[in-house]
Write a structure and sequence with these properties.
The complex is a heterotrimer of chains A (about 290), B (about 240) and C (about 325). Chain A is mainly α and about 290 residues long. Chain A contains eleven helices and two strands. With about 325 residues, chain C is mostly helical. The chains are: A mainly alpha (about 290), B alpha/beta (about 240), C mainly alpha (about 325).
Chain lengths: ~290, ~240, ~325
């Protein structure tokens, strides 16, 4: 029983990080109606950058977010503006999806050239420290990561609900045509939205790099999980994404502790399968046109 | 025309969040009629179509088509049972030629997938419909190259490949030239004369008055009047529905 | 009125069947005419990619469902072949080729339920599900050690062919698969299945509402595509005689298939072949000279983006349009 709760606690903390990674994805889907297959690669890119900053200049990974986030924001905005915005054909959705996939590959290729294929982890001094809270072990890094996720998601929520930019984003998400008619520059919103999604990946990546060992190929594993989370939550629902991330974090952690770590990965696929079979719109998503 | 109605809609209800688009709607379409379905904007007409054909799941209510209850309406199954519909914005297969569009709608099941792409019988029936609708000249043109009005005609013609008993037309004359309106009217009458029943959603009151009998009036998702066009048009509650309040 | 060239519209046959026969003759004679085995190897892999691309085209091109995880079926075919033969002798050497058709059918049978679940969704979610499936199969390959040997891989008997002409039987096996894939594509195109798939690709909802058997059409295309893909995996396994999970179930293979089809022209009969004949030899040559796979990741990524932005319908349809426009002006 103790094990199960311990796994559950770990799961909540992990879920927080998934929520951060997946929120960027949901945001991008909201403004562009395109699933960003490069989200995992962006997280891994950030993990590598954070790792390099740490090993070369001793920059604490949490602080490195302040450096990496603006860089990735710029990268994301540029990618959307240069590569995705020009796609206007009838099957632009499909082409955009494949272009994001190509971006993921490009990032993987560049990372492999720069860093080769060895696995690495960012290990600052406190990485193995843990606290005992009410009899359960809570890793310091994971706790800090969870806190970072909360702060970032909170900041994102404030941005979306309180600022003019946030309103433009929400308008574009709900009804791009109406938004444009009301003067919202949806093209710019889409680009900035993508940039924002990439920036959240920066925070997630710095954290991911401390908790897991990664190499350029890790983005496939990551994107599969992120996609399961996003589909479970319902494409386009930020709240749904957060809930789904927590659910998946707990579920995979429980499976890992009670069954075997190998099958923990599988729980994502099983959940994805179940969602598609039973409730394709996910927990909170709306039924979009066409199946799902 | 006597006998049981071809289509019976009983207490159909559909809610979207807080809005009840269709509210306990009940009506019947008798065989061999061109029944009109009118009502002000937002009265739920297209939603009713979507519920009847299964494009949207209803929250409650029953459907009976051709004497048999429809338990879970599915567009494909209903099509093969003889109920077809057009869409407000004509939907055709742009990459296929006009003839191919017709053949695709022939309603063959999965067992026929191995057959020839344009079988002789299908092609012959298709050519027949093309001649009837005056589209023979465009036989091998990709549907994407047709004008809006021609696409509406094509969509209508294609449905007839399956020899439906009931055709639901969703604003067939919206956005087309007066000449095309006349053409469409002509074809509806001709098909009606050969026994096809129609249920027509329309805003063109002149057309409705000329063509439809009976006329069903919808407002706020429910039926408020039903009867011959001349009777219905002067009912105070119908005028109220259209003029506001 | 404008008449489309060919009786079956834009996706009909390119050039007379005669040109195809000539090409086939050239391909048949090729390994007998060249002396360097590495050239035959390049030819072998090019034919393999051409067969894979044509097979992928049935699902990604005709039906419009871009499967990004097809390499999983290639891997399943490879493992099936290797596991079957691992403790047997190859005898005359042709036995392993005869087990290919049953393997193709078996993997296709497994693929049908997977496809059924995956195709209940929009095309972008479908792409996601297939990537996830690829990852799952690769994980299974690594972890079901009792069956697949895990990271150690599986060995199969080395083919007893003469070293000087070792590649030839494999080359011809791949050529046979390419012919099979093209025959399937041609058959599908000229059948009601092809018509149904084009309708599904264009407007799946509308197709359903006019009684097109959408589910059966999609599943059939998927199954046919997997048969060829799995058989190619089997030939590949026999050629290498030792397979490892990260190479048998390799996302780069999926990516290659997609790229080749998009480059050549998806939904066309010859587009995938063209794409393969352009990309595969280049890829093989680069592998031979530089041996570095990260280079082709970058090259694939760059080529992908260029194709999407500049020539999204692929080379053949774009060329066709240019020719027609030139003719119209003349």
């Amino acid at each position: 029983m103790h094990e199960a709760v311990q796994a559950g606690v770990l799961g909540v903390l992990t879920g927080g990080v998934y929520a951060l990674m997946a929120s960027g994805q949901t945001l991008i889907f909201g403004v562009m109606k395109v699933v960003n297959l490069a989200q995992g690669a962006l997280v891994i890119l950030a993990a590598f950058l954070s790792h390099s900053l740490f090993t070369a200049w001793g920059v604490d990974p949490f602080l490195s977010v302040l450096i990496i986030a603006p860089l990735m924001f710029a990268l994301g905005t540029a990618v959307q503006w240069l590569l995705l915005r020009p796609l206007h054909q009838d099957d632009a959705a499909l082409l955009s999806l494949l272009v994001t996939f190509a971006v993921a590959l490009g990032i993987e290729g560049a990372l492999t050239l720069a860093y080769h294929t060895d696995y690495r982890t960012t290990r600052p001094a406190y990485v193995d420290r843990s606290w005992r809270i009410v009899g359960y072990q809570v890793g310091e890094v994971r706790l800090a990561a969870f806190a970072l996720s909360l702060i970032t998601l909170g900041g994102l929520w404030l941005l979306l609900s309180r600022t003019r930019f946030g309103r433009s984003v929400r308008a574009t998400v709900q009804n791009p045509v109406a938004a444009r008619l009301l003067g919202v520059e949806t093209a710019r919103v889409a680009a900035l939205g993508f940039g924002l999604g990439a920036a959240t990946a920066a925070a997630a990546g710095a954290v991911y790099g401390m908790v897991y060992s990664f190499n350029p190929n890790s983005h496939y594993d990551l994107i599969s999980r992120l996609l399961s989370v996003v589909i479970l939550g319902g494409l386009g629902s930020l709240g749904g994404t957060v809930v789904a991330a927590l659910v998946m974090g707990i579920a995979s952690s429980l499976v890992g502790a009670l069954v075997s770590p190998v099958w923990s990965d599988f729980s994502f696929f099983v959940v994805l399968l179940a969602v598609l079979l039973l409730r394709p719109q996910g927990l909170f998503g709306a039924r979009l046109r066409g199946a799902l | 025309m006597s006998g049981p109605p071809l289509l019976e809609v009983r207490a159909l209800t559909k809610r979207f969040g807080g809005v009840t688009a269709v509210d306990g709607c009940s009506f019947a379409v008798r065989r061999g009629t061109i029944t009109g379905l009118i009502g002000p904007n937002g009265s739920g007409k297209t939603t009713v179509f979507n519920l009847v054909t299964g494009h949207l799941p209803a929250d409650s209510g029953q459907l009976v088509f051709d004497g048999r209850p429809v338990t879970r309406p599915d567009p494909g199954r209903l099509y093969r049972r003889g109920l077809s519909r057009t869409f407000q914005q004509p939907r055709v297969f742009g990459e296929l030629t006009v003839l191919e569009n017709l053949v695709t709608a022939a309603g063959h099941g999965w067992r026929a997938l191995a057959g020839r792409r344009l079988g002789a019988r299908d092609a012959a029936r298709g050519d027949g419909l093309l001649a009837e609708f005056g589209l023979s000249a465009h036989r091998d043109t990709p549907a994407a190259e047709l004008s809006y009005g021609q696409r509406k005609l094509l969509e209508f013609a294609a449905l007839l490949m399956s020899e439906p008993a009931l055709v639901l037309l969703d604003e067939p004359t919206a956005g087309v030239s007066p000449a095309m309106v006349a053409t469409i009217e002509r074809h509806v009458r001709a098909r009606h004369a050969s026994g096809t029943t129609f249920l027509l959603v329309e805003h063109d009151m002149g057309l409705v008055m000329r063509l439809c009998d009976p006329v069903i009036v919808l407002d706020g998702g429910t039926v408020i009047a039903e009867g011959p066009p001349d009777d219905v048009r002067s009912l105070p509650r119908v005028l109220d529905a259209y003029l506001g309040g | 009125m404008r008449r489309w060239p060919g009786r079956y519209g834009r996706y009909g046959r390119y050039g007379p069947g005669l040109a195809a026969l000539v090409a086939l003759a050239v391909l048949v004679v090729f390994p007998l005419a060249v002396s360097a085995p590495w050239l035959v190897t390049i030819g072998l892999f090019t034919l393999m990619y051409a067969a894979l691309a044509s097979a992928w085209n049935l699902v990604g091109g005709y039906a419009g469902y871009p499967s990004l995880g097809h390499a999983a079926f290639f891997g399943m075919g490879a493992y099936a072949e290797a596991i079957w033969w691992t403790h047997r002798t190859a005898g005359s050497g042709y036995g392993p080729f005869w087990t290919l058709p049953p393997i193709g059918l078996a993997v296709a049978a497994v693929a049908v339920p997977v496809a059924w679940v995956a195709m209940r969704t929009r095309t972008d979610v479908f792409a996601i599900v297939t990537i996830t499936f690829l990852f799952v199969v690769q994980t299974l390959a690594f972890n079901l050690r009792g069956l697949t040997g895990g990271a150690q891989g599986v060995a199969m008997p080395v083919a007893p062919f003469a070293p000087a002409t070792f590649e030839r039987p494999f080359y011809y096996a791949m050529l046979a698969l390419l012919v099979l894939a093209l025959a399937m594509s041609y058959g599908v195109l000229h059948s009601r299945l092809g018509l149904a798939l084009t309708a599904v690709r264009g407007d799946e909802d509308k197709a359903r509402s006019v009684g097109v058997p959408v589910g059966a059409a999609k599943l059939t295309a998927f199954a046919l595509s997997v048969v060829v893909t799995a058989m190619a995996g089997g030939v590949w396994a026999y050629y290498l005689s030792f397979i490892y999970p990260q190479f048998a179930v390799d996302p780069l293979l999926s990516i290659g298939m997609v790229l080749m089809v998009f480059l050549g022209g998806r939904g066309t009969l010859w587009g995938p072949v063209l794409g393969a004949f352009v990309v595969a030899p280049a890829q093989q040559y680069l592998a031979y000279r530089f041996g570095a796979s990260q280079l082709y990741l970058l090259a694939y990524a760059a080529l992908f983006v260029v194709v999407m932005l500049v020539m999204p319908r692929g080379a053949l349809p774009t060329l066709r349009d240019r020719i027609r426009r030139a003719e119209a002006r003349a």
